[in-house]
């Protein structure tokens, strides 16, 4: 994995630095992503920044409200010397103007899901400023390795980035994660669909040291952070519960009650032999305590463990 990370970084650097002498006759709108990256690399090494900064760009882009919205957001502020507006302004992100202003002769760096540029090429721009230790987990994160761009989640030309708003971050995530979106709308789920809870209550969008980019070191620690009563210790443990909550639950939602992956008795019979209750009497299939709504749970109700001295069978 480390090698992959290195490779990505190297490519990011090379696309910016490497100089290609081949000239393209085709207009840049028709270039492939790779050709476009080469063209931009040439433009970078020529380094022709405009002398008027944003004013130069706004001669043409002022009428576009979406573009002007950058001045309502964090990156449009002048309050810190790290701010793009205190330096190269628009070109801090979109690269040097070069001959872009001469009849659109040359391309600019474009961002987001519509951009033809690779995620690593786009991200290297952001990482030029956002390289503090808080961003370290990003490099080995699945999002980085799967070529998700910063701007696939973040919107910069906006007063408020929807990814940073608790009421819209679930939409940001579920625009790609359609399976989880479907799950969270099922009969039983965490209150995600009402935005009372968010994906980032459990996951770190920039990656973490844990599996599935969880905020906490393990799955169970993640669950205990809200369901502390399930942490125990209990007198009589139920082994799968202490091991892994998602053996039985789907954290995103399920058609079964209690976000269970399947219902009893099937849920239990993945591990427990279907029989073994000597006294079991069946008059009519499905009508005894074994069938029907709660099935095994009619008797073994303390499924997460028992504190009763004689609760070894999780019955009390
Ligand atoms: C002379 C007019 C003109 C000037 C000046 C100008 N642009 Fe553009 N820009 C265009 C046109 C035309 C397009 C292509 C049509 C479109 O996408 O709106 C474009 C497209 C873009 C795009 C989208 C590129 C893409 O691949 O989709 C970005 C980003 C951009 N310009 C940024 C800038 C920045 C930053 C500056 C100042 C450094 C600037 N422009 C100056 C005319 C101009
Ligand atoms: C020229 C430097 C610079 C570049 C390039 C840059 N940023 Fe920023 N960014 C800043 C500064 C300064 C802040 C405000 C201080 C902070 O939160 O670190 C900021 C804040 C942010 C925030 C938090 C915003 C908020 O409202 O709290 C996000 C998200 C962000 N940047 C994403 C990006 C992304 C994505 C890119 C690449 C497309 C990018 N930045 C490129 C300098 C930059
Ligand atoms: C999968 C979506 C996603 C991607 C990809 C992503 N971010 Fe974020 N980012 C978020 C979310 C969600 C938050 C809010 C986190 C929070 O509130 O805990 C955030 C917060 C931030 C912040 C402000 C808080 C902080 O941690 O300082 C910055 C700056 C930032 N991201 C920059 C970036 C940069 C740079 C990249 C690319 C290298 C990137 N992000 C990639 C979703 C994403
Ligand atoms: C901090 C980085 C940053 C700065 C500074 C910045 N942009 Fe952008 N720009 C982006 C990102 C990221 C996008 C993708 C859409 C979004 O996030 O809002 C974008 C999108 C665009 C687009 C394409 C919009 C479209 O319709 O698809 C244009 C044109 C553009 N920017 C022009 C400018 C101009 C002009 C300025 C200066 C006034 C500027 N940008 C400053 C990062 C930046
Ligand atoms: C632009 C598309 C896109 C967006 C937006 C996006 N993701 Fe992802 N995410 C992916 C891809 C691609 C993968 C890797 C394949 C997969 O697991 O689906 C992934 C993987 C993940 C994983 C599994 C990580 C692992 O290491 O196993 C988690 C968790 C995740 N994303 C959470 C989020 C959250 C939370 C958000 C919103 C803040 C988000 N994603 C937004 C594309 C996206
Ligand atoms: C209550 C905590 C919790 C919330 C909220 C949550 N997740 Fe997860 N997510 C998990 C756990 C735990 C796993 C690991 C599941 C496993 O290993 O079977 C996971 C796994 C994932 C994966 C990887 C799936 C795979 O097949 O590898 C993705 C993608 C993901 N979550 C996306 C999301 C998105 C998007 C949201 C918001 C709609 C979200 N999650 C909300 C706990 C949560
Ligand atoms: C950020 C807090 C939070 C985290 C973390 C969390 N939960 Fe929840 N959980 C809730 C809330 C809130 C409810 C809804 C309670 C209610 O409706 O009374 C809930 C409900 C549940 C339910 C009952 C659902 C139903 O339909 O009755 C189950 C099962 C559950 N969570 C399992 C888990 C598992 C497994 C994890 C770890 C992967 C987890 N939770 C992590 C907050 C959380
Ligand atoms: C062996 C399967 C299994 C495992 C593993 C499991 N649960 Fe459950 N859980 C259930 C069943 C079955 C129910 C439904 C109980 C009922 O309907 O009476 C349930 C219900 C719940 C509920 C809602 C009712 C209540 O008791 O509060 C929460 C919350 C919950 N589980 C959290 C967790 C957490 C957290 C973990 C991990 C520590 C976990 N579960 C592990 C089987 C399991
Ligand atoms: C992932 C496997 C798994 C699942 C699913 C599971 N169990 Fe268990 N269960 C175990 C293990 C392992 C033990 C400990 C067995 C031992 O100590 O001999 C155990 C112990 C028990 C015991 C105590 C009996 C004893 O010998 O200590 C009962 C009762 C029980 N489970 C009922 C259930 C019920 C009811 C369900 C369904 C809601 C269920 N289990 C689901 C693995 C599982
Ligand atoms: C009518 C109440 C009742 C129901 C329903 C029930 N059990 Fe039991 N279970 C018991 C009793 C009583 C014992 C201890 C005496 C015995 O072995 O017959 C027991 C013992 C067990 C044991 C430990 C002994 C062994 O067999 O190794 C396990 C595991 C178990 N049950 C699992 C289940 C599962 C899985 C289900 C659902 C398919 C279930 N039980 C349904 C009452 C019940």
UniProtKB/TrEMBL annotation:
Q: Pfam families attached here?
A: Cytochrom_c_NrfB-like (PF22678), Paired_CXXCH_1 (PF09699)
Source organism superkingdom = Bacteria
Question: Which UniProt keyword terms apply here?
Answer: Signal
The record's annotation in Gene3D superfamilies points to: Cytochrome C3 (3.90.10.10), Flavocytochrome C3, Chain A (1.10.1130.10)
Residues of the signal peptide: 1-25
Question: Can you give the residue ranges of the Cytochrome c-type protein NrfB-like domain?
Answer: 90-163
Q: Which InterPro entries match?
A: Cytochrom_c_NrfB-like_dom (IPR053875), Decahaem_cyt-c_DmsE (IPR020015), Multihaem_cyt_sf (IPR036280), Multiheme_Cytochr_ET (IPR051829), Paired_CXXCH_1 (IPR010177)
Q: Residues in domain Doubled CXXCH motif?
A: 191-231, 238-275
Instruction: State any single GO MF term.
Output: oxidoreductase activity
NCBIfam families cross-referenced by the UniProt entry? decahem_SO, paired_CXXCH_1
Q: What is this protein called?
A: Cytochrome c family protein
């Amino acid at each position: 994995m480390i090698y992959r990370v290195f490779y990505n970084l190297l490519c990011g650097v090379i696309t910016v630095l490497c100089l290609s002498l081949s000239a393209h006759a085709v207009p840049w709108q028709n270039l492939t992503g790779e050709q476009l990256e080469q063209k931009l690399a040439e433009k970078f090494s020529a380094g022709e920044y405009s002398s008027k900064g944003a004013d130069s760009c706004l001669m043409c882009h002022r009428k576009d409200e979406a573009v002007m919205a950058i001045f309502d957001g964090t990156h449009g502020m002048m309050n810190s010397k790290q701010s793009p507006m205190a330096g190269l302004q628009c070109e801090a992100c979109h690269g040097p103007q070069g001959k872009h202003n001469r009849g659109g002769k040359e391309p600019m760096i474009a961002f987001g899901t519509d951009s033809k540029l690779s995620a690593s090429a786009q991200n290297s721009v952001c990482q030029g400023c956002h390289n503090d230790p808080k961003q370290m987990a990003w490099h080995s994160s699945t999002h980085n390795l799967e070529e998700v761009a910063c701007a696939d989640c973040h919107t910069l030309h906006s007063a408020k980035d929807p990814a940073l708003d608790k009421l819209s971050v679930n939409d940001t995530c579920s625009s790609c994660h359609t399976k989880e979106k479907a799950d969270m709308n099922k009969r039983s789920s965490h209150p995600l669909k009402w935005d009372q809870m968010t994906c980032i209550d459990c996951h770190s969008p920039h990656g973490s040291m844990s599996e599935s980019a969880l905020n906490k070191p393990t799955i169970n620690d993640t669950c205990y952070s809200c369901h502390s009563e399930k942490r125990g210790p209990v007198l009589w443990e139920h082994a799968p519960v202490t091991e892994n909550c998602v053996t039985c639950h789907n954290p995103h939602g399920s058609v079964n009650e209690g976000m269970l992956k399947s219902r009893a008795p099937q849920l239990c019979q993945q591990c427990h032999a279907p029989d073994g209750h000597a006294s079991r009497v069946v008059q009519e299939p499905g009508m005894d305590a074994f069938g029907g709504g709660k099935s095994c749970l009619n008797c073994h109700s303390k499924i997460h463990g028992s504190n009763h001295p004689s609760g070894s069978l999780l019955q009390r």
